[in-house]
Task: structure prediction
Amino acid sequence: MTLPEPKASVQRLFNNLSTPYACFVFSHYRGETRRDVAWIKPNPRELVLDLACGPGTLALELGRYGCRVYAVDLAEKMILLARRAARRRNNLGVHFAVADAERLPLPSNCFDLVTCGYSLANFPALPPVVAEMFRVTRPGGRVAILEAVAPEDAGQRTVLNRLEQLRSAGAPARLLCSTDLRALFERASFLLLDGQVRERRRRLDDWLSLGNFDRAAGSCRQLRQQILETAGDDSAGLHLERCNGRWFFYAKVACLLWQKQSTSSRGKASKEKAHQKTASLGWRVSKGSLSRRHVSRSDPPAQQA
Result:
């Protein structure tokens, strides 16, 4: 998939980070992911789309609930790792494909639930992504967002986003505050069902280990020092603390559950779109449901661990 900048830089970033990122989230965040999905309360047999799915952590947990899950990501290597994880867990009811969240090759008004976890900060433009979420969600369907957010204080938000940008080494990385994130979905005509901001304790060196750094140039070490320099006045809003020789910070995570309100016109559109095919993903839509055609012959082989 050939992409323009800055979208191509996001794809490169997550292709480069795919293996360490997958290893980390599957080993460290499994319990957190299970709690997040329990909060969403998915129903068995719901048709679910997971956007920017990464190595499949959220999608595979949704699959454990009996959902029919279709997951997309811009990074090809993330999709390869997600497919491998699905095979290892014998979770063959979850399907993965490479796709651009701003231009989804999927029919309108189709999914019961759309999810997106810890990805919005890396989209170059958010309104088109939210508009696509709205388009593909069926009337009455839900959208669940799990996203790190910046402090409400503008000064702290500026400092934190500067640090985030340094970690991403030029790729888009911008955290919204909770207020701005909610406003983004409200402008798209979503109705908020449940919204909360939770603090989650993170180890600083874990966060840095998933950065896109020139190790030889000492960029990681320099960024670590810059972060620690904010501890005195908490200028980044991270609430840094040292425990047993290690530094920790508190990430703010917005957990937002939205609903697309029903209208008769949208219901009619859903029927009209029911037979659209999504050949580019290897998925077929028929009578309002998705099925995946056999595409393994054209898939690139997953690397062995």
Q: What stands out?
A: The longest strand covers residues 246-260. Confidence is low (pLDDT under 50) at residues 264-277, 286-305.
